């Protein structure tokens, strides 16, 4: 009995040793995992359609520079960069800001979209190359050794389908009113017809090209720009009788497609009520006091300028509209429906027919 008891005791000890070894390995792995440094970094972004690179207003470059100084973003996406007279506009805006004590790096690879960044920007790629019908570009931004992808988009402005429910053509065959014979707009409220018209543009091809390009990307992605198309999160049942939607709720194609691919709409996520915070970016008042409306007998206000992101380690900290509160409504300046909106740079001379969108995002990087 003693011998059997001794052998049994030895067997129990061996099992315990194996278990202890297993537990030790688990604890060691946990310690090693916890030793990986987690670094958090706040970055601020601005998307800004600069209306033919500022040539639509006197001293446009300086006024655009003043907006950047006022908002002080880390990364800016500019839309409608034309490089008139073969002059590199992005280099000019960087130079203008340098004179004011602000250092930015330049990112330009072609098309009419460019970036400036307080962090080194490189590896520019054209994602969508039909420059006559839209531009999408990607860059890498090195944030203290951590790389994020920034993407800029200016999508096709033709077949501007949100005009149709408002009783106006969207560029095909023209931009004129769809007249009822008495000078009044005749809205097209057939959703399938509006969506089919919308897909005649190259906006969907551009977004599909972008999605395919970044499908295997593991780094955080921030997409900014002017889509020339509203959001499916804005033209809802809640707003179908507002803003000259004329009873129409539309699941706009490109924002919905990006949503399905996991891209987060920063503005609408931060401000989930589309009635209280419509977030209009078009058509903005400019301090030149000339109407920017294309549908003078309708309320064409829309949110068509966006910041979106994809990445599990990004938190939205703050979002603002940038520019004046006023927009053109039935061709008259109004600030209605803006009482719950947050604005930046709304008291300086505004140089664009679009408002900008500003976002503060918190990134968590693993070392």
Map the helices and strands:
Elements: H1 2-35, E1 38-49, H2 60-71, E2 75-79, H3 89-99, E3 105-107, E4 113-117, E5 121-128, E6 134-143, E7 146-155, H4 191-198, H5 203-214, E8 221-226, H6 253-260, E9 264-265, H7 266-270, E10 305-310, E11 314-322, E12 327-329, E13 332-334, E14 343-344, E15 356-366
Parallel strand pairs: 1-2, 7-8, 11-14
Antiparallel strand pairs: 1-15, 2-4, 3-4, 5-6, 6-7, 8-10, 9-10, 11-15, 12-13
Helix pairs in contact: 2-3, 5-6
Explain this structure.
With 367 residues, this protein is of the alpha+beta class. Helix content is 25%, strand content 26%. The chain has helices at residues 2-35, 60-71, 89-99, 191-198, 203-214, 253-260, 266-270, and strands spanning 38-49, 75-79, 105-107, 113-117, 121-128, 134-143, 146-155, 221-226, 264-265, 305-310, 314-322, 327-329, 332-334, 343-344, 356-366. A hairpin with a 5-residue loop joins strand 3 and strand 4. The longest helix has 34 residues, at 2-35. The chain starts with a helix and ends with a strand.
Number of domains: 2
Task: State which percent range the strand residues make up.
Answer: 25-35%
- The neighbouring-strand order within the major sheet is 3-4-2-1-15-11-14
The total of helices stands at 7
Shape: globular
């Amino acid at each position: 009995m003693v011998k059997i008891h001794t052998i049994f005791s030895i067997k129990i000890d061996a099992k315990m040793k194996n278990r202890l070894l297993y537990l030790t390995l688990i604890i060691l792995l946990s310690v090693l995992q916890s030793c990986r440094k987690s670094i958090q970094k706040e970055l601020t972004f601005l998307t800004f359609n600069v209306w033919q690179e500022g040539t639509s207003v006197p001293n446009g470059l300086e006024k655009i520079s003043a907006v950047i100084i006022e908002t002080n973003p880390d990364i800016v996406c500019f839309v409608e960069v034309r490089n008139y007279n073969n002059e590199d506009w992005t280099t000019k805006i960087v130079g203008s800001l340098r004179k004011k004590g602000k250092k930015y790096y330049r990112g330009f690879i072609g098309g009419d979209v460019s970036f400036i960044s307080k962090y080194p920007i490189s590896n520019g790629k054209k994602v969508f190359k039909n420059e006559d019908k839209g531009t999408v570009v990607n860059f890498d931004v090195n944030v203290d050794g951590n790389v994020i992808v920034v993407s800029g988009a200016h999508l096709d402005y033709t077949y501007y389908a949100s005009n149709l429910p408002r009783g106006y053509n969207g560029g095909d065959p023209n931009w004129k009113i769809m007249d009822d014979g008495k000078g009044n707009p005749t809205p097209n409220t057939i959703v399938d017809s509006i969506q089919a018209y919308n897909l005649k543009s190259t906006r969907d091809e551009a977004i599909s090209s972008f999605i395919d390009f970044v499908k295997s990307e593991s780094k955080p992605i921030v997409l900014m720009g002017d889509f020339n198309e509203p959001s499916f999160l804005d033209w809802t049942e809640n707003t179908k009788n507002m803003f000259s939607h004329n009873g129409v709720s539309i699941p706009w194609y490109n924002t919905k497609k990006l949503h399905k691919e996991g891209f987060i709409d920063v503005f609408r996520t931060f401000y989930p009520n589309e009635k209280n915070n419509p977030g209009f970016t078009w058509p903005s008042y400019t301090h030149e006091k000339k109407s920017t409306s294309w549908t003078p007998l309708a309320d064409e206000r829309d949110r068509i300028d966006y910041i979106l992101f994809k990445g599990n380690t990004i938190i939205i900290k703050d979002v603002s509209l940038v520019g004046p509160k006023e927009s053109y409504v039935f061709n008259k300046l109004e600030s209605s429906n803006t009482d719950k909106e947050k604005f930046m740079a709304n008291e300086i001379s505004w140089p664009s027919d679009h408002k900008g969108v500003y976002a503060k995002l918190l990134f968590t990087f693993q070392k």
